[in-house]
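Entry 14. Structure prediction run on the chain below.
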Amino acid sequence: MQQPHRNLTQQLVHELGKSILQGKYSVGGSFPSEAELSTLFDISRTSTREAVKMLTAKGLISSRPRKGITVLDIKHWNLFDADILQWILLGKPDLYMLRHFQQLRLAIEPEAAFLAAEYATADDLILIENALDRMHQAHEGYDDTHEADIDFHKSVLVASNNPFFSQLTHFIEIALKINIRFTKRLRAVTEDEYQTHADILNHIKNKDAQAAFNCAMKTQKETIALINEKITQLK
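Output returned:
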Protein backbone atom coordinates (compact mmCIF):
# COMPACT_ATOMS: atom_id res chain seq x y z
CA MET A 1 0.00 0.00 0.00
CA GLN A 2 3.01 2.25 0.49
CA GLN A 3 3.03 5.30 -1.79
CA PRO A 4 5.82 7.85 -1.16
CA HIS A 5 3.70 10.85 -2.19
CA ARG A 6 0.84 9.98 0.19
CA ASN A 7 0.70 9.83 3.97
CA LEU A 8 -0.78 6.74 5.64
CA THR A 9 -4.27 8.19 5.86
CA GLN A 10 -4.30 9.18 2.19
CA GLN A 11 -2.96 5.77 1.20
CA LEU A 12 -5.78 4.03 3.07
CA VAL A 13 -8.38 6.37 1.57
CA HIS A 14 -7.06 5.57 -1.91
CA GLU A 15 -6.99 1.80 -1.35
CA LEU A 16 -10.48 1.65 0.15
CA GLY A 17 -11.98 4.08 -2.35
CA LYS A 18 -10.54 2.12 -5.26
CA SER A 19 -11.83 -1.14 -3.76
CA ILE A 20 -15.34 0.27 -3.39
CA LEU A 21 -15.39 1.52 -6.99
CA GLN A 22 -14.10 -1.85 -8.20
CA GLY A 23 -17.02 -3.57 -6.48
CA LYS A 24 -15.07 -5.35 -3.73
CA TYR A 25 -17.57 -4.05 -1.18
CA SER A 26 -21.23 -4.11 -2.18
CA VAL A 27 -23.72 -1.35 -1.39
CA GLY A 28 -25.27 -1.96 2.01
CA GLY A 29 -23.05 -5.00 2.53
CA SER A 30 -20.46 -5.77 5.17
CA PHE A 31 -17.45 -3.51 5.50
CA PRO A 32 -14.47 -3.86 7.87
CA SER A 33 -14.67 -1.96 11.15
CA GLU A 34 -12.08 0.67 12.03
CA ALA A 35 -10.32 -1.88 14.25
CA GLU A 36 -10.28 -4.44 11.44
CA LEU A 37 -9.00 -1.89 8.93
CA SER A 38 -6.26 -0.84 11.33
CA THR A 39 -5.11 -4.45 11.66
CA LEU A 40 -5.55 -5.30 7.98
CA PHE A 41 -3.46 -2.36 6.73
CA ASP A 42 -1.15 -2.20 9.75
CA ILE A 43 -1.72 1.47 10.52
CA SER A 44 -2.81 3.31 13.65
CA ARG A 45 -6.43 3.67 14.74
CA THR A 46 -5.99 7.45 14.44
CA SER A 47 -5.02 7.22 10.76
CA THR A 48 -7.79 4.70 10.16
CA ARG A 49 -10.41 6.89 11.82
CA GLU A 50 -9.33 9.88 9.72
CA ALA A 51 -9.52 7.82 6.52
CA VAL A 52 -13.05 6.70 7.39
CA LYS A 53 -14.02 10.34 7.97
CA MET A 54 -12.63 11.32 4.57
CA LEU A 55 -14.49 8.52 2.76
CA THR A 56 -17.64 9.52 4.63
CA ALA A 57 -17.21 13.13 3.48
CA LYS A 58 -16.93 11.87 -0.11
CA GLY A 59 -20.26 10.10 0.34
CA LEU A 60 -18.89 6.60 -0.26
CA ILE A 61 -19.63 5.20 3.17
CA SER A 62 -21.69 5.83 6.28
CA SER A 63 -20.18 5.23 9.71
CA ARG A 64 -22.46 5.16 12.74
CA PRO A 65 -21.96 4.04 16.34
CA ARG A 66 -23.22 0.48 16.96
CA LYS A 67 -24.18 0.16 13.27
CA GLY A 68 -20.70 -0.03 11.80
CA ILE A 69 -19.58 1.11 8.36
CA THR A 70 -21.83 0.75 5.33
CA VAL A 71 -21.11 1.37 1.63
CA LEU A 72 -23.60 3.89 0.23
CA ASP A 73 -25.37 3.92 -3.11
CA ILE A 74 -23.84 5.97 -5.94
CA LYS A 75 -26.53 8.65 -5.55
CA HIS A 76 -24.79 9.68 -2.32
CA TRP A 77 -21.29 9.90 -3.80
CA ASN A 78 -19.61 13.22 -4.48
CA LEU A 79 -19.13 12.43 -8.15
CA PHE A 80 -17.23 15.64 -8.88
CA ASP A 81 -14.61 14.76 -6.29
CA ALA A 82 -11.25 14.35 -8.05
CA ASP A 83 -10.44 11.13 -6.18
CA ILE A 84 -13.78 9.52 -6.97
CA LEU A 85 -13.46 10.40 -10.65
CA GLN A 86 -10.02 8.81 -10.72
CA TRP A 87 -11.29 5.69 -8.94
CA ILE A 88 -14.10 5.40 -11.50
CA LEU A 89 -11.46 5.38 -14.22
CA LEU A 90 -9.41 2.77 -12.34
CA GLY A 91 -12.50 0.69 -11.62
CA LYS A 92 -14.96 -1.00 -13.93
CA PRO A 93 -17.05 1.72 -15.62
CA ASP A 94 -19.71 0.23 -17.88
CA LEU A 95 -21.69 1.63 -20.80
CA TYR A 96 -24.34 2.93 -18.42
CA MET A 97 -21.73 4.91 -16.50
CA LEU A 98 -20.36 6.19 -19.81
CA ARG A 99 -23.87 7.33 -20.75
CA HIS A 100 -24.20 9.17 -17.44
CA PHE A 101 -20.96 11.02 -18.20
CA GLN A 102 -22.07 11.79 -21.73
CA GLN A 103 -25.48 13.06 -20.64
CA LEU A 104 -23.77 15.64 -18.44
CA ARG A 105 -21.31 16.55 -21.19
CA LEU A 106 -24.36 17.16 -23.40
CA ALA A 107 -25.61 19.69 -20.88
CA ILE A 108 -22.24 21.35 -20.28
CA GLU A 109 -20.07 21.53 -23.38
CA PRO A 110 -22.43 23.20 -25.88
CA GLU A 111 -23.10 25.98 -23.38
CA ALA A 112 -19.37 26.28 -22.67
CA ALA A 113 -18.76 26.74 -26.42
CA PHE A 114 -21.53 29.37 -26.49
CA LEU A 115 -19.95 31.28 -23.60
CA ALA A 116 -16.45 30.92 -25.09
CA ALA A 117 -17.69 32.64 -28.26
CA GLU A 118 -18.82 35.54 -26.13
CA TYR A 119 -16.08 35.79 -23.51
CA ALA A 120 -12.90 34.01 -24.70
CA THR A 121 -9.74 36.09 -24.44
CA ALA A 122 -6.87 36.07 -26.91
CA ASP A 123 -4.94 33.77 -24.57
CA ASP A 124 -7.92 31.41 -24.34
CA LEU A 125 -8.07 31.17 -28.13
CA ILE A 126 -4.37 30.38 -28.32
CA LEU A 127 -4.84 27.41 -25.95
CA ILE A 128 -7.74 26.04 -28.02
CA GLU A 129 -5.79 26.56 -31.25
CA ASN A 130 -2.75 24.80 -29.81
CA ALA A 131 -4.85 21.79 -28.83
CA LEU A 132 -6.44 21.68 -32.29
CA ASP A 133 -3.01 21.93 -33.93
CA ARG A 134 -1.80 19.04 -31.77
CA MET A 135 -4.82 16.99 -32.88
CA HIS A 136 -3.79 17.60 -36.48
CA GLN A 137 -0.15 16.72 -35.79
CA ALA A 138 -1.24 13.53 -34.04
CA HIS A 139 -2.52 12.19 -37.34
CA GLU A 140 1.05 12.44 -38.58
CA GLY A 141 2.35 10.64 -35.51
CA TYR A 142 3.87 13.68 -33.83
CA ASP A 143 1.60 13.90 -30.79
CA ASP A 144 -0.85 11.98 -28.61
CA THR A 145 -4.24 12.35 -30.25
CA HIS A 146 -6.06 11.33 -27.04
CA GLU A 147 -4.38 13.98 -24.90
CA ALA A 148 -4.75 16.64 -27.60
CA ASP A 149 -8.49 15.93 -27.89
CA ILE A 150 -8.89 16.12 -24.10
CA ASP A 151 -6.97 19.40 -23.97
CA PHE A 152 -9.21 20.87 -26.67
CA HIS A 153 -12.37 20.22 -24.67
CA LYS A 154 -10.80 21.41 -21.43
CA SER A 155 -9.60 24.60 -23.13
CA VAL A 156 -13.11 25.40 -24.35
CA LEU A 157 -14.42 25.04 -20.79
CA VAL A 158 -11.77 27.43 -19.50
CA ALA A 159 -12.49 29.83 -22.38
CA SER A 160 -16.08 30.15 -21.15
CA ASN A 161 -14.57 32.27 -18.36
CA ASN A 162 -17.20 30.84 -16.05
CA PRO A 163 -15.40 29.60 -12.91
CA PHE A 164 -17.96 26.84 -12.36
CA PHE A 165 -17.40 25.46 -15.87
CA SER A 166 -13.64 25.80 -15.49
CA GLN A 167 -13.71 23.55 -12.43
CA LEU A 168 -15.30 20.76 -14.49
CA THR A 169 -12.17 20.18 -16.57
CA HIS A 170 -11.16 17.11 -14.56
CA PHE A 171 -14.65 15.64 -14.96
CA ILE A 172 -14.48 16.14 -18.74
CA GLU A 173 -11.01 14.58 -18.85
CA ILE A 174 -12.19 11.42 -17.06
CA ALA A 175 -15.33 11.23 -19.24
CA LEU A 176 -13.22 11.36 -22.40
CA LYS A 177 -10.75 8.77 -21.10
CA ILE A 178 -13.60 6.38 -20.33
CA ASN A 179 -15.04 7.02 -23.78
CA ILE A 180 -11.68 6.25 -25.37
CA ARG A 181 -11.41 3.05 -23.31
CA PHE A 182 -14.75 1.79 -24.64
CA THR A 183 -14.10 2.73 -28.26
CA LYS A 184 -10.66 1.07 -28.03
CA ARG A 185 -9.44 3.16 -30.92
CA LEU A 186 -5.75 3.76 -31.49
CA ARG A 187 -6.73 7.12 -32.99
CA ALA A 188 -9.19 9.05 -30.84
CA VAL A 189 -10.13 11.52 -33.58
CA THR A 190 -11.21 10.83 -37.17
CA GLU A 191 -10.91 13.38 -39.98
CA ASP A 192 -14.60 14.26 -39.64
CA GLU A 193 -14.26 14.68 -35.88
CA TYR A 194 -11.20 16.86 -36.35
CA GLN A 195 -13.17 19.08 -38.72
CA THR A 196 -15.98 19.37 -36.19
CA HIS A 197 -13.48 20.57 -33.57
CA ALA A 198 -12.08 23.04 -36.10
CA ASP A 199 -15.59 24.32 -36.80
CA ILE A 200 -16.23 24.85 -33.10
CA LEU A 201 -13.03 26.88 -32.82
CA ASN A 202 -13.88 28.97 -35.89
CA HIS A 203 -17.33 29.75 -34.50
CA ILE A 204 -15.78 30.77 -31.19
CA LYS A 205 -13.22 33.00 -32.95
CA ASN A 206 -15.97 34.56 -35.05
CA LYS A 207 -18.01 35.18 -31.89
CA ASP A 208 -20.93 33.24 -33.36
CA ALA A 209 -22.17 31.84 -30.05
CA GLN A 210 -25.22 30.04 -31.41
CA ALA A 211 -23.26 28.33 -34.17
CA ALA A 212 -20.63 27.21 -31.62
CA PHE A 213 -23.42 25.86 -29.40
CA ASN A 214 -25.11 24.02 -32.28
CA CYS A 215 -21.87 22.46 -33.50
CA ALA A 216 -20.90 21.24 -30.03
CA MET A 217 -24.42 19.96 -29.42
CA LYS A 218 -24.37 18.01 -32.68
CA THR A 219 -21.17 16.15 -31.85
CA GLN A 220 -22.31 15.39 -28.30
CA LYS A 221 -25.65 14.01 -29.54
CA GLU A 222 -23.88 11.82 -32.08
CA THR A 223 -21.69 10.36 -29.34
CA ILE A 224 -24.58 9.62 -27.00
CA ALA A 225 -26.52 8.04 -29.88
CA LEU A 226 -23.63 5.60 -30.40
CA ILE A 227 -23.61 4.76 -26.69
CA ASN A 228 -27.37 4.17 -26.68
CA GLU A 229 -26.98 1.91 -29.71
CA LYS A 230 -24.33 -0.16 -27.90
CA ILE A 231 -26.54 -0.45 -24.81
CA THR A 232 -29.46 -1.60 -26.95
CA GLN A 233 -27.27 -4.32 -28.45
CA LEU A 234 -26.56 -5.64 -24.94
CA LYS A 235 -30.26 -6.19 -24.18
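The chain has two domains: 8-76, 93-234.
Filed with the rest of this week's runs.
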